[in-house]
Amino acid sequence: MVGFLVFIRPSDLPKVAPVSPFRHLDERKAAIYENLRDLQFEYRLDKLSDDDYAATKVELQKELARVRAEEDRLKVELGQITGKTPPPPRAPEVVVAPKQNVCPGCGARFEKALKFCGECGKPMSADPEKKHDAEIKQ
Ligand SMILES: [Zn+2]
Fold first, then answer.
1. Is residue 29 situated within a structural domain?
2. Alpha carbon of 98 to ligand 1 centroid (Å)
3. What share of the chain is helix, strand, coil (3-state, %, to 5)?
């Protein structure tokens, strides 16, 4: 009676299609969605018992989960082949203190922007003109 159901088994389809490896997975998903739609339809028409409906729905959802898992696995596999996996972790970026936190006089670095250098007492400023002044005074 559930003649509309076409179960798609992994063995029915090639593992990897030459053109797009995702194509057969997309086709399987499309078929599952279609079966789910049909199932809903039949159920609304009272052609299916609650049990049949629930059981079939669970089966289809399981199949869908399998296809999605296969998709994820394939993505990882392809990434490894094409080298599109994330690049190896880089060394942590060196945090360069903003200019205004570096004393133009002595080069001392401070975590906070200060008006005057805590080391030599010279004015700390990102303003290029003032920095120039400070350099002249030296
Ligand atoms: Zn200083």
1. yes
2. 15
3. 50, 5, 45
Token code pair at residue 73: 């696995």
Q: Are residues 78 and 96 in the same domain?
A: no
pLDDT by residue (tens digit) across 106-136? 988 888 888 888 899 998 875 544 445 555 5
Which residues make Cβ contacts (< 8 Å) with residue 97, sequence separation at least 6? 109, 110, 111
| 92 CA distance to ligand 1 middle (Å) | 28
Last residue of a domain, one of 82, 100, 129: 82
Both 60 and 98 in one domain: the answer is no
The three-state secondary structure class of 102 is: strand
DSSP state of 10: G
Ligand 1 center–CA 69 separation, angstroms: 60
What per-residue confidence (pLDDT) applies to 130?
A: 46
List 116's β-bridge partners, or say none: 123
Centre of ligand 1 to C-alpha 131, Å, is: 12
